[in-house]
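Exercise 7. Given the components listed, write out the predicted structure of the assembled complex. Treat all entries as one system.
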Amino acid sequence: MSGPGGQPAERVRALAASAWLFRWQVEREAEVRFAGLAARLEALGAPQQLASLARLASADERRHAAHCARLSAELGQPVPARPPPAPCEVAPSGLAEEDAVTYELVAACCVTESVSVAVLTGLLPAARDPSLRAVLRELAEDEVAHARLGWAHLGVAAARGRTAYLGPLLPAMLRGSIDEDLFRPVEPDREDEALLALGVLPHALKRDLFVRSLEEVVFPGLEGAGVDTAAGRAWLEERRASATPGTRPGRGLERRAGRG
Amino acid sequence: MSSPKTTNVGKLLRVLVAGGLGLVGAAGAARAEEKAAAPAEKTEKAQEKDKAKEKGAAEKEKKEKKAADEKKEAGSDGGGVKGW
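Answer.
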């Protein structure tokens, strides 16, 4: 669905602009979330290294947001002048503060940042524009550190025997981490591989990376920290079963990767 | 058979977990364990001091909890963090 001269069609550029605009919002929210988590970790007396990592992550996210804003504007969609509202806490009410912080770090880092690393790694080989490549590489390096913050904190929580409560909460955590339509068929433009050159994953590829990240990294990592992932795995299996008939989410990545 | 690209993604992500879990290491875990054990080691005097401090902060804490509960209300069953 490319336009004349191999340039992405206008619709594809508009979709890519929306994706970068959404990422700007995500990064600004993450900046606030990590700053809050740094303060909460310090208040809990967590290892100083974790609070420092959270503070660094907050600064990283601000820088990422600037990249996303620039790319969104270049694609024709400038970001709003005002930052998005502060993100809500995602931990269920009723948890002790220590457990609420662990929940938030698992949701933000072990799940979301780990999946982001997979997304960025998947985008890099297709991005030919040097400026876009530089941004993706910079973000990928930072997101690795952000994901590790979550896994490091989870290791500390596991040593304290405070991770088991997370198991039954996984479906809500995972549901909240994806767009509602991730497991549904979408308009053909959103599957256009021309999106890759603009730093955006086609829909099915995004879904495949999400599924593989959970199955190969997130679930095994959580299990290693004493979290029963049965509820999370059941949730994923339900989503997979509800996906487009004839497709098997989690398998498409290999097909595409084979095409280089 | 997985392609080099898929292998790299899997490998990179596995490094995340191992690297993260090892990041704080034994020192962090030991500190966390010490912290967990600390209340049992406190003297009676220290406990009394803590109690007085808690009483003084009770009202403030109550207010903060109420505000936090209100903030959490929308996601009281828990939620997730959207990313890329």
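Discussion: The first helix of chain B runs from residue 4 to 41. Chain B is about 80% helix and 0% strand.
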